[in-house]
Structure formats: C-alpha cells, structure tokens
Amino acid sequence: MTRFQYMIYGLQEFSLLIKDISVHFKSVKDNWEETLQEMYLIGTRSFFLIFLGGLFTGVILAIETGHQLETFGATAWIAKTVSLGMVRELGPVITGLLLAARTGAKNTSEIGAMQLSEQIDALKAFGANPIEKLAVPRTIAALTMFLPLTLIADIVGIVGGMLVSNQTFNSDINVFWHTAIVSLKMKDLFVGFLKPFFFGFFIATISCYFGLTTKGGTTGLGKNTINAVVYSSAIILVIDFIFTKVVWELL
After folding, report:
1. Are 126 and 231 in contact (CB under 8 A)?
2. 0.85 surpassed by pTM
3. Quick count: other Cβ atoms within 10 Å of Cβ 230?
C-alpha cells in the first residue's frame, strides 16, 4: 500500500468513526459518569493552563500593538486590537492548540493503552460498544467544555491587555473597557464562539481515532500520540482559516 493509499484509507476509517460517534450521541445518558469525568479532566484540570495561555497572549498582543500605535499617538486603539484579536482569533486558536496537546495526547494514550492491553477487545466480548463507552463521552465533554475555556482565555487576555495598556501606555481603564466592548460586533462573537465547537469535535475524534487504531506496542502508542497532536493542531489552523476567509466574508 502506497503512502497516498494509506492516507485515503485512514481518512475513510476516520469518516466512519465520525459517523459512529454521531449515531451513538444519544448513548451519553447511559455513560453519564464517564462523560462527567471527562468534562472534569478537560475543563477543571485545564483551567490553569488556559488561564496562563490567555493571559500572556493578551499581554504580548497589547505590548506589541501598543508600541506600534504609540508611534502614531493612537494608544487608545489598543483596546480594540486586543478585544478583537482575542475574541475572534487568538483566544479560540490558543485554547484549541493547548487542548490539542493536552486533551488529544490524553485521549490517544489512554485509549491506545487499552487497545494494546486488549481491554477494548474485552469490552466487545462483554457486549459493550467501545464507541459508546470511550469515544462518545470524550467527544461530548470536548464539545461542552471548549467554549467555557475559550471564554476564560478571552476574558483573561483582555484583562491582561488592559493592565499593560494602563501601566505601560497610561491608558484609562474605563476608556479601555468601553472601547473593547463597543468594538465587538455580533459577527465577532458568533465567529469566535462557534470555533471552539469545531475545534473540540475534531480534537476529540482525531485523538480517539488514533487511540483506537494503535498497534505496535509502546512505539506505536508514542507515534500515534504524536500524530494525534500534530493532526489536531493542523486541523485547528485549517478550520480557523476557513472561518476567517469564508464564513467571515459571508456574514
């Protein structure tokens, strides 16, 4: 099998996995404990990581744009740049990339270890569906938790930008908040809040796919874990481009 044929085969298998997950979405009520556990691991355990990522992204964005705008005496526009940049682009993308590394690697390593130790075969032998028990709870948890985490990154990033703008460029805090809020249109919020659902869905499904197809011992598990993170990160950038170029122009 050539590399191209292998890629087509993998894409076919991934499409079938997405179909199976979509069909079994309703089974979440039968695996509610597993779903809550995954929501805790994705959401609560990722809070500090997302907090730091959003904070320093907003701070760096404010510093870089502030120095450029200061040249033209337009530091008042730092608020607009930070708010639009965080809500529309950087907040969702930074959150997605960080969770692609954390959540994607976690899902692949857990499911892959179960695959190698034949625990998934044991589930099938007892009449349980691995898609319902493993993939669906992780996908539902990602769809549920990615938006709140993105909101945290957005808010913290804007607050970080506000502090930098106030302390470094002597901008008034009240003026900053007013400009930041007024600058955000409904289209910005729609695009910025829709991205996390797509990011979460593909990160969860890609990581589950690589976990379920793991073979070749610990070497294969490590390779699939890396592939899950790489492919998830690439998909995030592609989806972000589609939203920025296509969806943004259509709205």
Report:
1. no
2. yes
3. 14
